[in-house]
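Problem: given the chain below (80 residues), write out its structure.
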Amino acid sequence: MTMPAFGDKIGGRCAKTAKRIAIKEGLPLYRIGGTVMVKEVDVTAWLENQRIEPVQSEPDLRSRLQEIRDRVAAKRRAAS
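Solution.
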């Protein structure tokens, strides 16, 4: 994969910026006929490592209010 293609894959960066990122992140670069390239397998693996999975968060306000409504309704049914 050429540096312009790598730049496009990482968010529309120019070739020079893509090369800087590749060097900084330690991606192995290859020079083929005067063109600096990086293997697509390496790019894919690097992108997978960069991905941040969402953290399971607390229930939001709407779901908490629904839980309270359900409990109150159940108590009212049990009381009648």
